[in-house]
From TrEMBL, chain A:
Top-level taxon of the source organism: Bacteria
NCBIfam families for the chain: PDH_E1_alph_x (TIGR03181)
Limits of the Dehydrogenase E1 component domain: 55-336
Pfam families: E1_dh (PF00676)
UniProt keyword list: Oxidoreductase, Pyruvate, Thiamine pyrophosphate
Protein name: Pyruvate dehydrogenase E1 component subunit alpha
Cofactor(s) required for function per UniProt: thiamine diphosphate
Record-linked InterPro entries: Alpha-ketoacid_DH_E1_comp, DH_E1, PdhA/BkdA, THDP-binding
Residues covered by region (Disordered): 1-32
Automatic annotation (TrEMBL), chain B:
InterPro entries associated with the record: THDP-binding, Transketo_C/PFOR_II, Transketolase-like_Pyr-bd, Transketolase_C
Protein's organism: Streptomyces hydrogenans
Lineage, opening ranks: Bacteria, Bacillati, Actinomycetota, Actinomycetes, Kitasatosporales
The protein, known as: 3-methyl-2-oxobutanoate dehydrogenase (2-methylpropanoyl-transferring)
Cofactor(s) annotated in UniProt: thiamine diphosphate
Pfam families: Transket_pyr, Transketolase_C
EC identifiers of the protein: 1.2.4.4
Domain Transketolase-like pyrimidine-binding: 6-181
Top enzyme class: oxidoreductase
Keyword DNA-binding appears in the UniProt entry: no
SMART domains documented for this protein: Transket_pyr
UniProt KW keywords: Oxidoreductase
Length: 373, 345
């Protein structure tokens, strides 16, 4: 079957936006598994895998933040407190699926299997994207808010037109849902029924601006209704619930069911970045209340109660975390290799004559610099 | 121009048809490009021939259109996006600047974006507000984009084919007031060479001065060169065809051959393409210049209402005035009857 034939077949499938908004509305209470009877039915192997990723992920956040204090990273937007969302996002995908992360989603990228040092290249400053997006099927960490969401829609749409059953999962935050591109992405996803899932990590703040000043929407999950995209709210610190909701949305997309908007309620325990002072906009009491909802602790509490976290399992998870952290420290401590001539290497498929001239000039400057040393 | 022949709109339509026919990765998308065939009919019949997935009507959201096209290109398709009018492309500006132009670079060449963004541009069609902008300056100032604009029917076909086949993103600016001009041209004819992107062409040779122009101003310059001939000046006309990559070599050769140059474009002059061209010529051809490079451009005003646009657009008289002002030796001046014409533009 040619590409053209498959694209025509895909285009001929009926679109069913659904006139009745009720099925698109989020439930009144966010989905939750931990602390409910449903938790007992979850596969222990999955729970252990989620746990190991959470422990390693927490250590990754702490280590990366420490590296900013040592001047090894220019900046680190921490996802400490949001590890359940990060880990669940990565684990809900199959190898052929695509992940579209933001700058705060480095942990999701690492959990998907990308090398931590390559993931942190953007924040270390030696290039913008350090990993190979095509090899890992992870789009570049996106800094301009929500602008990567239409990319996820387009990639998913193109795959569907080509008869390819991959799914795109795009991450954003509560602030990102105010951006025009969020709405345009949902519009296009709804119309094309692209196999895409949007995960909004609602951590309560866009840097300093609280949700109440961000939106008057009933919930962020409700924002899907206007675009014919079902909205789901989930307890974002319940890693089992986030994984379950995302997995269902991903498989629904894969089987032709169209896009889903998932809002995960979570909290950023650290400041926006190491350069931010969160004390200017939120109280210690508030942070303490959320510490009690720590996603790592919550899963461990369940595992212990269920008899699934023996000493050896816990020790192995911690050992994996320490190995990752030690490797990260050691490799980030090495001076990153940068090549000034690479500035010209990837601007165009064929460099312009003007870039050729500028390249020669920079090469001469570098020679002069080397000669004067 | 004869009544027979092919219009630029038809040539563009043929280019899209052939691209869709030759490469299943090519996907045309935009507002009204499907059933309607585009407000300028550039995509006429394509949805019927190739299906509405290959020539797709999109929601009315330019950032979403271009952002979706970025994702499609990431997957491996070759989207050809239509922005309905120059000034309606601005909502897509962030996608263009932050992603389209940079994706290859930020991913070290791993995610090139082979996409073409067609933008009908320029004035002279009596359009109401926001339908007549010359927006090339925004695009050519953005590293990572190619900025191409045809001025002839044959180039419209050839350059669009090249743009779609390019592995770099191309902003393809279509001079909308040239859409309906006919030329004796056929895509199958022998006179249909496909020019490479980045090569300027001398449309008219001249020994005394050269007019450097592109897109909608080419006919104005050709007419001005004819008029100059009557005044005894042999003025050449250079059609840039591509602003990025910029053909310094051909431009400088034309300037060195004449020693005098005028840059003509519709866009406002301040900080525009003409400023860049004049600076480049000055840097490279200073010792060959007999006079400063002059610019004849649109005024530095927001695009005027239709009844006023003729005062804004560079016309033949303004071009001629600039030519007359190129510090001719007294013998040449005498041919004009004494003092050189003083222009304030």
């Amino acid at each position: 079957m040619t590409l053209q034939q498959t694209t025509e077949r895909a285009a001929a499938e009926p679109r069913t936006p659904g006139r009745d908004p009720a099925p698109l509305l989020p439930d009144r209470r966010p989905a939750r598994v931990l602390g409910t009877p449903a938790a007992d039915a979850v596969d222990p192997a999955l729970l252990r895998e989620l746990h190991r990723h959470l422990v390693v992920g927490r250590r990754f956040n702490e280590q990366a933040t420490a590296l900013t204090r040592q001047g090894r990273l220019a900046v680190y937007p921490s996802s400490r407190g949001q590890e359940a969302c990060q880990v669940a996002a990565a684990l809900a995908l199959r190898p052929r699926d695509w992940l579209f992360p933001t700058y705060r989603d480095t942990l999701a990228v690492v959990a998907r299997g990308v090398d931590p040092v390559e993931t942190l290249t953007l924040l270390r400053g030696d290039w913008h994207t350090g990993y190979d997006p095509v090899e890992h099927r992870v789009a570049p960490l996106c800094t301009p808010l929500a602008t990567h969401l239409p990319h996820a829609v387009g990639l998913a749409h193109a795959a569907r037109l080509s008869g390819d059953d991959l799914v795109a999962l795009a991450l954003t935050g509560d602030g990102g849902t105010s951006e025009g591109d969020f709405h345009e992405a949902l519009t296009f996803a709804g119309v094309t029924r692209a196999p895409v899932v949007f995960l909004v990590q609602n951590n309560g703040y866009a840097i300093s601006v609280p949700l109440a000043k961000q939106t008057a929407a009933p919930t962020l999950a409700h924002k899907g209704v206007g675009y014919g995209v079902p909205g789901v709210q989930v307890d974002g610190n319940d890693v089992v619930a986030v994984h379950g909701v995302l997995s269902a949305a991903v498989e629904r997309a894969r089987s032709g069911g169209g896009p889903t908007l998932v809002e995960a309620l979570t909290y950023r325990l650290d400041a926006h970045t190491n350069a931010d002072d969160a004390a200017r906009y939120r109280s210690d009491d508030e942070v303490e209340r959320w510490r009690a909802e720590d996603p790592v602790t919550r899963l461990e509490t369940h595992l212990r109660a269920a008899g699934l976290l023996d000493e050896e399992t816990g020790r192995q998870a911690l050992a994996a975390a320490e190995t990752m952290a030690a490797d990260l420290r050691r490799r980030v401590a090495e001076e990153p290799a940068v090549d000034p001539m690479e500035l010209f290497a990837h601007v165009y498929a064929t460099p312009t004559a003007q870039l050729g001239e500028q390249r020669a000039r920079l090469a001469a400057e570098l020679r002069a610099e080397a000669g004067s040393r | 121009m004869t009544s027979r022949g092919t219009t630029m709109a038809e040539a563009l339509n043929t280019a899209l048809r052939h691209a869709l026919r030759d490469d299943p990765a090519v996907h045309v998308m935009g507002e009204d490009v499907g059933t309607l065939g585009g407000v300028f009919r550039i995509t006429d019949g394509l949805a019927a021939e190739f299906g509405d997935a290959r020539c797709a009507d999109t929601p009315l959201a330019e950032s979403g259109i271009l952002g979706t096209a970025v994702g499609m290109a990431m997957y491996g398709l070759r989207p050809v996006v239509e922005m309905q009018f120059d000034a309606f492309a601005y909502p897509a500006f962030e996608q263009l600047v932050s992603h389209v132009a940079k994706m290859r670079n930020r991913t070290r060449g791993r995610l090139p974006l082979p996409l073409t963004i067609r933008v009908p541009y320029g004035g002279g069609i009596g359009g109401v507000e926001h339908h007549s902008d010359s927006s090339e300056g925004y695009y050519l100032h953005t590293p990572g984009l190619h900025v191409v604009t045809p001025a002839t029917v044959g180039d419209a076909y050839g350059l669009l084919r090249r743009a779609i086949a390019s592995d770099d993103p191309v902003v393809f600016l279509e001079p909308k007031r040239r859409y309906w001009t006919k030329e004796d041209w056929s895509p199958d004819g022998p006179a249909a060479p496909v020019p490479p992107i980045g090569r300027a062409v001398l449309r008219r040779p001249g020994t005394d001065a050269v007019l450097i122009t592109y897109g909608p101003s080419l006919p104005v310059c050709l007419e001005a060169a004819d008029a100059a001939r009557e005044e005894g000046l042999d003025v050449g006309v250079l059609d840039l065809r591509s602003l990025v990559p910029f053909d310094d070599e051909t431009v400088c050769a034309a300037v060195r051959a004449t020693g005098r140059a005028v840059v003509v474009h519709e866009a406002s002059g301040f900080g525009g393409a003409g400023a860049e061209i004049a600076a480049r010529v000055g840097e490279r051809c200073f010792h060959h210049l007999e006079a400063p490079v002059r610019r004849v451009t649109g005024l530095d005003v927001p695009y005027p209402a239709p009844l006023l646009e003729r005062h804004h657009l560079p016309g033949v008289d303004r071009v001629l005035d600039a030519v007359r002002d190129l510090q001719w030796p007294s013998a040449t001046r005498a041919r004009h009857g004494g003092e050189p014409y003083a222009v304030g533009a």
